[in-house]
Write a structure and sequence with these properties.
The structure is a single chain. Helix content is 77%, strand content 0%. It has 2 domains: 5-65; 73-307, no CATH class. With 308 residues, the chain is mainly alpha-helical. Belongs to the FAM114 family.
Length: 308
């Protein structure tokens, strides 16, 4: 059988495409094939197809892993600079602890005993309430104005010279509620459960990071303040931490409600996926409040130093 010029042209085109898509072919001896090796060519095509499919599978796995990593709370929290502020707060707490230890080192007898009693009293002032009951009514329906009022109430007894800026937290909630309300009234394409879940993860991570930022800045102010009312400062911090946790629980609840409504209205192809995402949001909401409560604990040496 003799190949026509047309067929030979197809052969050459095929080999060129194979070499472009799989440079390995250049070195595996297949470039020495002739048009008379038809059986071998089909084998090469099958192998090239299998390699391409394997590459695509591997790429999808990598993309899936990267996607999950991007949606991981700790990764997002770091992306929103929460980790930087948490570490800064840890450093301030450690510095206060070291100063306390140096103050106590030369003391003995009654003087040491009195200072230790003061330290214990401050620690007792820093007892947080049971968060489960404090956040039981958190449903995320608070408006920006209502949230601002609750936040302002927590610092009303603080020294007027101590300024706490809640602007970024309020702006963030304004943006997320606008997104949620827009979804409710949108005439365009319906959002997927994954879209809502992604937004929820970003909302929780960003809000947590902004709360930790406020706590970090407040710790800086308290450390340089000359006059202290430790009982008032402790009470303010307890209230502020409680409202932060209430707000974060509300953020999680609001997005879970959105997902539930979406599932009811759109008959998802896989209902268990929607339920899993709702569970994940609640878990990350709980994780968020844990971050805030842990950050609060870092204030204890700072308040103790102010009382010493």
């Amino acid at each position: 059988y003799r190949w026509s010029g047309h067929a030979r042209g197809h052969w050459q085109e095929t080999m060129t495409i194979l070499q472009e898509n799989d440079p390995g072919l250049l070195n595996n001896g297949t470039t020495g094939l002739t048009p008379n090796d038809g059986v071998i060519l089909s084998q090469v095509l099958r192998e090239a197809k299998a390699k391409t499919e394997e590459r695509e599978r591997n790429l999808k796995q990598i993309q899936k892993h990267q996607y999950k990593k991007k949606l991981h709370f700790e990764t997002l929290f770091d992306d929103y600079h929460g980790l930087v502020h948490l570490e800064a707060l840890e450093m301030l707490s450690k510095q206060a602890q070291l100063k306390l230890e140096s103050l106590m080192a030369p003391l003995t007898g009654k003087a040491l005993e009195e200072l230790q009693e003061t330290m214990t009293e401050v620690k007792e002032l820093c007892e947080l309430p049971e968060m489960e009951s404090e956040t039981a009514d958190a449903d995320g329906t608070q408006t920006v104005d209502e949230l601002e009022q609750k936040l302002r109430e927590t610092i009303i007894d603080l020294d007027p010279s101590v300024k706490v800026d809640f602007g970024e937290i309020l702006k963030s909630w304004s943006d997320y509620t606008a997104w949620l309300d827009e979804n409710k009234h949108a005439d365009g394409e319906t959002r997927s459960v994954q879209d809502i879940f992604e937004k929820a993860m970003h909302a929780l991570a960003q809000t947590t990071a902004l709360c930790v930022l406020r706590m970090h800045k407040l710790a800086e102010i308290l450390l340089i303040s000359e006059h202290h009312s430790t009982a008032t400062e402790a009470d303010v911090l307890v209230q502020l931490t409680t409202v932060f946790c209430w707000h974060l629980s509300g953020v999680a609840a609001r997005f879970c409600t959105e997902l539930t409504n979406h599932n009811q209205n759109n008959s998802p192809s896989n209902e268990s996926d929607g339920s899993t995402l709702i569970t994940n949001i609640f878990l990350e909401g709980s994780n968020s409040t844990s971050y805030i409560q842990n950050a609060f604990q870092l204030f204890i040496p700072i308040l103790q130093l102010g009382a010493a």
